[in-house]
């Protein structure tokens, strides 16, 4: 039985680790977590925020994911979008998912990321 998503891996071009660390660490506020030595030799970097893990792996013939993306749940979506904008990231709001506020952004190598927060529950009458 599946019990959780352990991590999501995105691809990145060789040599992009510095830009990825700046974005996922400084812009998104995630913490870099060490890769096991045998995997660290391949390049890339891993990040976590609470139970959420994103792994960025080096792909020689890299093309950014334009449609495929992780959906990252946030709290305080307005403030989080403002944080990203203030740090130079693009924020594109989308209102097509009922019951949620959400926006899209891209990491520095062009991978699409979705950030969403469920609407507050309405009190029962």
Keywords:
single chain, alpha/beta, 2,3-Dihydroxybiphenyl 1,2-Dioxygenase, domain 1, 4-stranded mixed β-sheet, 3 helices, 8 strands
| Secondary structure tally, helices | 3
Query: Roughly how many Å is the radius of gyration?
Result: 16 Å
Distance between the termini: 38 Å
Order of helices and strands: EHEHEEEHEEE
* Tally of structural domains: 1
> Approximately what portion of the residues adopt beta-strand conformation?
25-35%
CATH superfamily membership = 2,3-Dihydroxybiphenyl 1,2-Dioxygenase, domain 1
Largest sheet: 4 strands, mixed
Helix content: 10-25%
The level-1 CATH class? Alpha Beta
Average per-residue pLDDT, rounded, comes to 94
- The spatial strand order of the largest sheet comes to 1-4-3-2
Task: Give the number of DSSP strands.
Answer: 8
- CATH level 3 topology: 2,3-Dihydroxybiphenyl 1,2-Dioxygenase, domain 1
Oligomeric state of this protein: single chain
Q: What structural class do you assign from the helix and strand content?
A: alpha/beta
Secondary-structure arrangement, i.e. CATH architecture: Roll
Per the principal axes of the C-alpha atoms, what is the gross shape?
globular
Low-confidence stretches: none
């Amino acid at each position: 039985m599946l019990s959780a998503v352990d991590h999501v891996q995105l691809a990145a071009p060789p040599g992009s680790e510095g830009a990825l660390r700046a974005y996922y660490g400084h812009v998104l506020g995630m913490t870099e977590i060490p890769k096991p030595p045998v995997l660290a030799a391949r390049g890339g970097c891993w990040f976590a925020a609470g139970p959420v893990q994103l792994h960025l792996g080096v792909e020689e013939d890299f093309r950014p994911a334009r449609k495929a993306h992780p959906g990252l749940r946030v709290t305080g979506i307005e403030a989080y979008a403002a944080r990203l904008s203030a740090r130079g990231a693009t924020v594109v709001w989308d209102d097509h998912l009922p019951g949620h506020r959400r926006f899209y952004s891209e990491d520095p190598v062009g991978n699409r990321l979705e950030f969403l927060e469920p609407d507050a529950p309405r009190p029962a009458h």
